[in-house]
What we know:
Helices cover 39% and strands 32% of the residues. It is of the alpha+beta class. It comes from Micractinium conductrix.
Amino acid sequence: MVYSGDVPLSQLQAQLEAAVEEEDYEKAAALRDVLQRRRFDVRLAVEEANERFYAAFQSGSLAAMSEVWGSGEHVQCIHPLSGCVAGRKAVIYSWKAILGSGRLRITLEDVRVYAADGHGFVTCVELTESSEGKGRIAATNVFELQGGAWKMVHHHGGPTPRAMPRIITTGI
């Protein structure tokens, strides 16, 4: 049995399910532990990529923001109250205008991270503060593993009401 970091999480999950089906509980327990450890590691990597994005955003550095973003035709950004900006070059150009407008302080709340083989996303609420005032933005940040590094491939931010009701779902 291979527990290498090169084995995709989906393949480890399939091996775990097969071990349970075969009632090989020792093998299943070992696979469960490897899966938990790997999922935690991938989740942390996506969370760190998200932190790099917000550090670049707050620093006002276009170079740092450019480093955060990935490449590919699927790279997109939707800034609050704007349309979709598509393609890496256009996305970086859009950040040039935003970062040039002054420093922004951002605090995150309700951060939720999901990560799997090669992709992950973060949802959160950005509490922003600048010389022009305060804001509250609901954001989704999508990351992709590119060349061994987690890169942002999509950011969507939109205004949210001050008091956002929490939707509770059970039994779904």
